[in-house]
Structures are given as structure tokens and as C-alpha cells.
Inverse folding.
């Protein structure tokens, strides 16, 4: 999407209730409707979404009746760090709008659900709640659709599995155990397609599955450790890999190792989004503090 400028100043962007964009300041208005692919229409001309300048202030308003399209999902993802946008997106996704039979739309919906349900505004409203269970189930279904549409692409398997995991956590231990095998199979498939995706995310998340599940339902502490260590070895720059490993050691009462892993997590540079990193840092600090307390 291309913006209009006045004296080289970005003026702002609003997504209107009709699915068009309202770009306004000093009574200057530009409307653009969502089109196919990764382009939108501005004043009758189709332009790429990549034309949006970095740092542009984007405010989102959307009606529950508006359909999901790739262009809108891309804009929402790029501007997910605005707290007001998070509230609007959460309210919209909570209506469970129909996800078209399209691979890109399906997996990007699942990804956005995971973010909205776990970070920023959503952390207090969806984590381990009934509303969260409903939202994550919707996201998992979108991920499952992506898996069927493109069975040789990693995205559907990955986002399906972690939405399913979040759904299980919100529903409770019985739901977590009941859905675990499906989630673990999806992560194993994702790992076989593209193990590097999301900083070796399949290894990290599959390790958490093995850690949290009782042995009766497929849990395996040794496999959990192997997978989490593998993630830190192959993507040592990613904070969350070390945080997961630290939490594993904490759960096993290996406090010296937990302290090392969580301190390492806190030393890493931020690679993910602002709200994701804020939660990683907070949880790594909690892990470090617990380990330090136990070592006194």
C-alpha cells in the first residue's frame, strides 16, 4: 500500500468498517480497498503492501462483517504492536469470521490468533480462559485448513500445533492430553519440512509437549531435554530457546543449570516482536529468580 504524504510527514491509517482504509489528518483522506494477493487499491491504482513506510502509525477499525483477506492480515501483523490495534483485532477474531479456503489466509490467521491470544492485550484476556479456548480452537482450525491445502509447507503444521497447545492449556489437563498426539505429529512434520522455521521452533515446542505431558500420555523428559538443547545449539541467538531450556531444568530441580540457561536468555538481543520479547524476558527473569532462591 502507498501512503500519501504532506511535507514528508506520515499522516496515519485507519481500516474502516467497510473494509477500506481511511488515511487522515488535516482533513486529508485516502481510501483503499483490499484486493487479491499482497496488493491493495489506492485511488483506483493497485500498489504493493510493501510500500507502507516502516514506522507508519496504523490504527485499525474493522466490522465483524468484514471478510478476512491476505492484505488485511499482513497489515494487522505488521502493526500488531499497537495496543489499541490488539484490542480491535482480538474483538474481530473472537467473532470467528469465516476463513476462506486459501493457504496464505489460513496460516496467517492461525499465526495472528496465537499472537493475540498470548501476548499484550490478549495475555490477560485469553491465556487459560474460556474465551481463550474458543479463540485458540478457531486458530487451530485455520492451521489445520492450511495443512490440508499445502501439505508440504511448514506454516500450517507449526501454527496449528501451537494454537492447539494453547487451546489445551486453556481447557485444562484432560484437553491437553487428548490433543497432544495431534499437536506432536504436526510439529514432527513441521520439523521434517523446515526445522529452522521460527528459530527451530518445532524442536522448542515439541520439547515442551514432551516435558509437560504425563508419561501415560506420551510425555518423555529425556526427549524433552534433547529437543530443547538442540534448539539452543542450532539457534543460540534466540532468547526463547534458552528460556524454555531454563524452565525445563527448573522443573527437574537442576537449579544451577536453570540459572545458567535463564541468564543466557536474558543476555540475548531481541529478535522477535516487542510484546513477544517482553514476555520472554519477564519469564526468563522469573526463572532466574526462582533458581537463585533455590540455590541460597
Amino acid at each position: 500500500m502507498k501512503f500519501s504524504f504532506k511535507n514528508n510527514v506520515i499522516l496515519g491509517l485507519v481500516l474502516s468498517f467497510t473494509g477500506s482504509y481511511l488515511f487522515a489528518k488535516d482533513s486529508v483522506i485516502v481510501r483503499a480497498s483490499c484486493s487479491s494477493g499482497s496488493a491493495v487499491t489506492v485511488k483506483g491504482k493497485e500498489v504493493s503492501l510493501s510500500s507502507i513506510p516502516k514506522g507508519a502509525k496504523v490504527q485499525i477499525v474493522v466490522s465483524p462483517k468484514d471478510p478476512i483477506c491476505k492484505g488485511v492480515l499482513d497489515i494487522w501483523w505488521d502493526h500488531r504492536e499497537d495496543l489499541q490495534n490488539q484490542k480491535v483485532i482480538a474483538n474481530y477474531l473472537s467473532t470467528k469470521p469465516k476463513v476462506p479456503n486459501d493457504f496464505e489466509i489460513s496460516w496467517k490467521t492461525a499465526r495472528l490468533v496465537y499472537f493475540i491470544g498470548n501476548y499484550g492485550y490478549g495475555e490477560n484476556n485469553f491465556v487459560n480462559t474460556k474465551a481463550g479456548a474458543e479463540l485458540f480452537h478457531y486458530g487451530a482450525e485455520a492451521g489445520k485448513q492450511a495443512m490440508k491445502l499445502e501439505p508440504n509447507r511448514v506454516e500450517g503444521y507449526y501454527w496449528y500445533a501451537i494454537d492447539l497447545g494453547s487451546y489445551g492449556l486453556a481447557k485444562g489437563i484432560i484437553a491437553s492430553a487428548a490433543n497432544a498426539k495431534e499437536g506432536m505429529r504436526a510439529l514432527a512434520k513441521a520439523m521434517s519440512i523446515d526445522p529452522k522455521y521460527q528459530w527451530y521452533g518445532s524442536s522448542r515446542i515439541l520439547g515442551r509437549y514432551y516435558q509437560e505431558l504425563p508419561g501415560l500420555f506420551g510425555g518423555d523428559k529425556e526427549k524433552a531435554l534433547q529437543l530443547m538443547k538442540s534448539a539452543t545449539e542450532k539457534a543460540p541467538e534466540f532468547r526463547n530457546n534458552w528460556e524454555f531450556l531454563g524452565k525445563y531444568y527448573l522443573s527437574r530441580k537442576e537449579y544451577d543449570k536453570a540459572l545458567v540457561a535463564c541468564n543466557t536468555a536474558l543476555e540475548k538481543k531481541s529478535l522477535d516482536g516487542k510484546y513477544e520479547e517482553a514476555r520472554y524476558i519477564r519469564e526468563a527473569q522469573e526463572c532466574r529468580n526462582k533458581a537463585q532462591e533455590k540455590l541460597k
